[in-house]
Amino acid sequence: MDLKKFEYWFIVGSQDLYGDAALKQVAEHARIMADEFNKDSLISGTVVLKPTAITPYAIRGLFEEANASEKCAGIITWMHTFSPSKMWIQGLAMNRKPLLHLHTQFNRNIPWAAIDMDFMNLNQSAHGDREHGHIHARMRLPRKVVAGFWQDREVRRRMGVWMRAAAARLDGMNTAVLRLGDNMREVAVTEGDKVEAQIKFGWQVNTWGIGDLTAHLSKVSDGQAEELAKNYAVSYELAPDLAKPGKARSAMLEQAKIEIALKEMLFEEHAGAFTTTFQDLHGLSQLPGLAAQRLMEQGYGFGAEGDWKQSMLTRCAKVMASGLAGGVSFMEDYTYHFEPGKEAALGAHMLEICPSISQGKPRIEVHPLGIGAKADPARMVFDAAPGPAVLATLIDLGGRFRMIVNEIETVKIEDAMPKLPVARALWKPYPNLGEAAEAWILAGGTHHSVYTSALTDEYFRDWAEMSGIEFVFIGRGTKPDRLRDELRWNEAYWMDR
What we know:
Structural class: alpha/beta
Number of helices: 15
Radius of gyration: 25 Å
């Protein structure tokens, strides 16, 4: 994904009391900063410098322009001098773009011997940004505040995190979730308010019949499938029975046809994510397994059993993680390991785990599924790479959405599992398995989640903030009893939002 196509408008505040000479310096400093931001690999998008904001009419015009821009993913504000915050009220009130308040100053150090009142008047972000921050708080605006010197790596890293979250938000507002069939019957966590999701996130959550997919599938030729299988042979290890004609190879080629048909549908419907369910496979010989894995690897979101919330959250994470080391996948908690000192959770799914999280080269195999009453499907089998990761899930509480994120450490699977031919990950959740599970359940966390070794909780926190939803973090310092109280306090805070 080309994240440089997303623009972040840099609006620098001042006022017309300081004279033209000072305003020229403000504009020049802002230009230098914008240019340097755009040269830094930590800044994922394109910083677009706007004219210095010195009147309420100009400020309102900038926000009107930003709202109308299809490229603008967010707005960065910084007060180089004092900029009276009443000038900003109309613009901020109409703003529909994510907001980052950068609290910095152009000079790193105080010029002790040379400092005078001219310098003080020009370089007064220390109190100009406090005036600006006050109006944000007064208006109760969601925003991220990044404070520090603008050339410091940590400042730019935090700006970059916010940019990636803002890119995912704008991407979500311009894409659809293609649901093939409905949700798995009688399951609560895969349900949700699709209208509220479109209001809150901009997601278009619509349903297509499985017949629409089979219609596309019927047009895919054997030659197209064989051509795609050549790519499989290069990118992955193939089980021996897949390299020769026979039942197993035919199963793999059927998944290739499903991949081609699904990708055509996704393109036609401008969809960035999709769902399937094993209870609605009429006209398909297999549950999409390898096909779903492959499409996730290409950046599409996926949710099993009709779980459109995690499907689109996977897509959001794919956008945020674009170009970063590590991977993103749909995930499900399956079973626990309670051996003292080695407590861990084993995550997997029937078939659909993204190979972007794999350690080493995935292997394509064909095995019985045991559910769905269909033919044996092809799938990639692998272990997830060890290292730090997070699990994120999005739930509908009936009156609002809540995001839950758990910090985890993926560990190497030491023992062979020859009778479990699926992709899998083994992790130790923080603070520990017992307390993490208690906290997750207290918060209403689902058995479906997004697993990522490329992102931290900060990315999801920024996305939740700009989306206006509750964020719950479970990490090293989490205590379930304390979290229970926090969840009750959150009920009061989010009741009217």
